[in-house]
Design brief:
Number of helices: 21
Radius of gyration: 23 Å
Shape: globular
Largest sheet: 3 strands, antiparallel
Strand content: 5-15%
Helix content: 40-55%
Number of strands: 7
Length: 414
């Protein structure tokens, strides 16, 4: 799972990862404060933050240089189950949030008005700490359509295999990693499973990023020590920053006002929604045109339907603006009949092909099909599987030859 804090504006650019070099840490992080972060990493981090200033929110003068005991006292005052220790590494990310990312933070705070109640409801049902709601802040910056080059997707950045393991539907028509409710449920089960392995929330959070196997390996290298700061030097680089970023997110969201970070204006239209269960095959365009709802807004509310189609044959959830739900129920027959031939019946072959493609292992991103290369695959066998030519695969992926590599993602449609 890739780290996606401070996401660039375009979803396809969401794989920028910031790493840092650090010496061995002891329990409370004895890293010398004057030790610099890697200069390239700093520039990349600051570039990302600068590129995210997309709201009219303005920050107060720089307040990032506070006494250490002030940061520490504020973290200790938070009502959290997850330990949030203060140390030089956490300080760096807190300061960069405050100094370079106030408008980015304002945007996420605006989006959190919609998403955090959903996260908190699920966390409460599963008996998990509320502060875990900041994991998707790190993973996707609360962008529901975020997708990494490695194939992780959605608010919680599930890989396809992990998503399916935790009950999410992922195929050419439906990708429930983008469904805020279902992906949140899956993330809760996943986080609980990780906590059951390590009995430590910081280790569980680290494992959410890099996998339980990598955390177990780091524990072995650390001589059996089972706390994040002891295994820190033995973790993958991006995971080393993961827990410090989690600490920084908790701090900044709770103390934004003290640093002059003003929340962006709340989008109440995105908050007032309702959900209807549909078992018939339906196209979002039918709903959009009959109810006069912008199709882009319907896609925003229902990002899991990657081709705008609710497949039918079982219950699927349709999210609508709250003031449209009664109208939808009253006009459901008219909606289902509207351009049904053009949008549904005449596209049956295409839809069936999409379902077959999903069986072959393909997945959709913004209308384009991709395939993760498996061991034993050749360019010819993949072309045959997806009914395209080798030359087309070469053109779509910028390949000069036929060499491909296991684990890479290949574009298999125009």
């Amino acid at each position: 799972m890739l780290l996606l804090l401070l996401l660039p504006a375009r979803a396809e650019d969401t794989t920028v990862v910031v790493s840092q070099a650090a010496d061995t840490l002891k329990a409370e992080a004895t890293l010398q404060p004057e030790e610099p972060m890697d200069s390239i990493d700093i520039r990349l981090f600051e570039w990302m933050l600068a590129g995210l200033d997309t709201t009219p929110c303005l920050s107060a003068p720089d307040t990032s240089e506070l006494p250490d005991n002030m940061y520490k006292q504020r973290l200790q005052a938070l009502p959290c189950i997850v330990e949030l220790p203060y140390n030089p590494i956490a300080k760096r990310y807190i300061q960069r949030y405050i100094k370079y990312g106030p408008r980015h933070t304002a945007r996420i705070m605006r989006e959190s008005e919609y998403y955090f109640p959903i996260f908190e409801d699920a966390l409460s049902r599963h008996g998990l700490p509320y502060e875990l709601k900041y994991v998707p802040v790190i993973e996707s910056a609360l962008r529901p359509m975020a997708r990494s080059r490695a194939g992780a997707a959605g608010l919680w950045q599930f890989m396809p295999s992990t998503a399916k393991r935790y009950g999410l539907e992922v195929n050419s028509l439906v990708d429930e990693r983008y469904d805020v409710y279902k992906s949140t449920e899956a993330a809760c089960v996943f986080l609980q499973a990780l906590y059951n392995i390590f009995n430590d929330w910081n280790l569980a959070i680290a494992a959410y990023n890099c996998g339980a196997g990598n955390v177990k390996k780091a524990i072995r290298h650390a001589g059996g020590k089972r706390d994040f700061w002891s295994i820190y030097p033995y973790l993958p680089h991006e995971t080393r920053m993961y827990v410090p970023l989690f600490i920084a997110s908790n701090y900044v969201f709770n103390y934004a006002g003290e640093h002059g970070i003003c929340p962006d204006s709340i989008r109440t239209d995105r908050m007032l929604t309702d959900t209807i269960v549909i078992s018939q095959r339906m196209h979002l365009k039918q709903v959009a045109e009959v109810l006069d709802i912008p199709i882009e807004y319907l896609r925003y509310l229902n990002p899991q339907y990657t081709r705008d189609i609710l497949p039918g044959n079982k219950d699927y959830r349709l999210c609508l603006p709250l003031n449209q739900t009664t109208t939808f129920i009253e006009q459901q027959d008219s909606i289902l009949a509207y351009q049904a031939r053009q949008l549904i019946h005449d596209r049956r072959t295409e839809i069936d092909m999409a379902q077959k493609t999903s069986i072959a292992g393909g997945y959709m991103v913004n209308g384009t099909m991709f395939y993760k290369i498996r061991q034993g695959d050749t360019l010819g066998s993949i072309a045959k599987k997806f009914h395209v030519t080798v030359s087309q695969l070469q053109k779509w992926n910028g390949l000069k030859g036929t060499n491909i590599y296991t684990g890479k993602n290949l574009r298999v449609s125009p």
